[in-house]
C-alpha cells in the first residue's frame, strides 16, 4: 500500500510540474502572409507550418522569434548550388591573392617580372606556330582524301570503308587541332592585358610607383 501511495505522489508531482511549466511558458501570437495579406493567430494552422512567420508575445506584444520559410527540395538544391559556387569563387579569389603575393616576393624588379612574361609569350608563340602547321597539314590531307572519294563517286564506284573511316578520323583530328589553336590564340591575346595588370599589382603589393 505504501508503494502505491508513493507512486501516486510522484505522479501528482509530475503533473504539477508540467502544469507549472505550461503556466509559466509565454503564450505566443503567430503572424504570417497568406494570399498576399498578413494573418495573425494564437495557433498555427497546418497550411502555415512551412511559411515564414514572426512569433510575438501575447502579453507584451514584443517579438519572440523569426522563422524563415521552409524551402522546397528544388529551392534547397538551388540554394546549395549557389553556396557551392560562392565557395568556388571565394577559393579562386584567395588563390589569386596568394599568387599575387608570391609574385611580389619572387621578382625583385619590374624587369624580372616582364622577362618572366616574355618567356610565357615565347612558349605560346611557339605552340601557335606548331598548331598552325598542324592545322595546315591536316587540312591538306583531308582535302586529298575528299578528292579521292569524289573521284570514286564520279566514276560510279563506291567509297571504300577504309577511305571513309580515314576521312572521318582526319576531320576529327582537324577539329581538335583547331580547338587547341583557338585556345592558344585566346591565351596569347590575354597575355598583354595580364602583364599590365600584373605590373600594377606588383607595384601595389611592393608599395612602389609604376614606372
Automatic annotation (TrEMBL):
Keywords, alphabetical: Signal
Signal sequence segment: 1-21
Identification of the protein by name: DUF4124 domain-containing protein
Lineage: Bacteria, Pseudomonadati, Pseudomonadota, Gammaproteobacteria, Lysobacterales
Amino acid at each position: 500500500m505504501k508503494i502505491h501511495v508513493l507512486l501516486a505522489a510522484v505522479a501528482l508531482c509530475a503533473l504539477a510540474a508540467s502544469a507549472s511549466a505550461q503556466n509559466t511558458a509565454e503564450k505566443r501570437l503567430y503572424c504570417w502572409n497568406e494570399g498576399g495579406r498578413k494573418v495573425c493567430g494564437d495557433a498555427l494552422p497546418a497550411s502555415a507550418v512551412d511559411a515564414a512567420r514572426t512569433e510575438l508575445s501575447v502579453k507584451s506584444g514584443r517579438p519572440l522569434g523569426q522563422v524563415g520559410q521552409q524551402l522546397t527540395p528544388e529551392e534547397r538544391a538551388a540554394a546549395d548550388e549557389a553556396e557551392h559556387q560562392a565557395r568556388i569563387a571565394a577559393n579562386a579569389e584567395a588563390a589569386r591573392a596568394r599568387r599575387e603575393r608570391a609574385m611580389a616576393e619572387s621578382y625583385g624588379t619590374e624587369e624580372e617580372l616582364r622577362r618572366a612574361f616574355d618567356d610565357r609569350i615565347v612558349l605560346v608563340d611557339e605552340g601557335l606556330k606548331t598548331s598552325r602547321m598542324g592545322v595546315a597539314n591536316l587540312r591538306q590531307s583531308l582535302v586529298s582524301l575528299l578528292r579521292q572519294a569524289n573521284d570514286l563517286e564520279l566514276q560510279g564506284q563506291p567509297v571504300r570503308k577504309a577511305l571513309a573511316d580515314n576521312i572521318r578520323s582526319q576531320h576529327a583530328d582537324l577539329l581538335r587541332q583547331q580547338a587547341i589553336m583557338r585556345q592558344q590564340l585566346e591565351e596569347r591575346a590575354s597575355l598583354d592585358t595580364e602583364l599590365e595588370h600584373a605590373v600594377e599589382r606588383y607595384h601595389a603589393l611592393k608599395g612602389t610607383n609604376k614606372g
